[in-house]
Amino acid sequence: MEREELTSLVNTHIKHFKILIAIAFSLAVSILIFENKTAVLAFVGASANELPIYSVETNEKVVSITFDSAWSIDDLDEILNILKSHNCIATFFVEGNWANNNPDAVKKIVEQGHIVGNHGANHKHMSTLSETDMISEIQGCHDIIKNLTGIDMTLFRAPYGDYNETVVTKAKELGYSTIQWDVDSLDWKDYGVDSIIDTVCNHKALKNGSIILLHNGTKYTALALDEMLTNLETLGYSFIPLDKLIISEDYEIDHTGRQSKR
């Protein structure tokens, strides 16, 4: 083989090798971005702190109990009594319309020492809204609760858990930390008492600093609540108010939504 032909062949192989390396690198970056939201945020120049809080890093064996309140109030008294018997301060994320229709229920939640959080004024899919409407939903609920109780809420949970970075950013601008959950009871699916208890107490994500999602106004939640809380206590957990669990400053949030001190 002539020297020129050999050189040309080598150069061709090198060129093909570089193309393969570039393709492999691109695929690796794509996989990383797809599987790791932090990578996405870094890629677009956003901060990981624009994620909601799903759980909190802590050495204490504590969990936080939260309820979304947008349905009936038929089981509320029973739920409040059970929480009291376990010395559990819960957070009730109330929808604005629900609060307007049930002002005494909101006042009762506050009077019994529980936290009231913002669940939007009209239970809309927040990620589908314009920025103006996002602000209107959050501020609208805020104003309703402020007028009823005098409280300036600081915790926001998007209806349906539906958020994007803009929702989290707008909530932050209004003075809110956006809260999700890492343990979903699935109580709204009406699978039954045993299902709620098993789903929560044997959840693969249950750990120190977990945020547990429940709903009032469901068929089985009140019936399952006492045993669920008892089982959590048997597992060694105690209950911490959500505003005492989350970190208010100098924190970071990883790609799973777990908040920790810097």
Could you please describe the fold and organization of this structure?
This protein is of the alpha/beta class. Helix content is 46%, strand content 15%. The chain is built from ten helices and eleven strands.
Topology, element by element:
Blueprint: H1 3-35, H2 37-43, E1 55-56, E2 62-69, H3 76-85, E3 91-94, H4 96-101, H5 103-111, E4 115-118, H6 131-149, E5 155-156, H7 165-173, E6 177-178, E7 183-184, H8 193-201, E8 210-215, H9 221-234, E9 238-239, H10 242-245, E10 251-253, E11 258-261
Parallel strand pairs: 1-11, 2-3, 2-8, 2-9, 3-4, 5-6, 7-8
Antiparallel strand pairs: 10-11
Helix pairs in contact: 1-2, 3-9, 6-7, 8-9
Summarize, please.
By secondary structure, the chain is α/β, with parallel strands linked by helices. The protein is 46% helix and 15% strand. It contains 10 helices and 11 strands.
- SSE-based structural type: alpha/beta
Coarse shape = globular
Number of domains: 2
Task: Estimate the mean pLDDT confidence.
Answer: 87
| Uncertain stretches | 1-46
CATH superfamily of the largest domain: Glycoside hydrolase/deacetylase
Q: Percent range for helical residues?
A: 40-55%
Straight-line N-to-C gap: 63 Å
Reported CATH architecture of the largest domain: Alpha-Beta Barrel
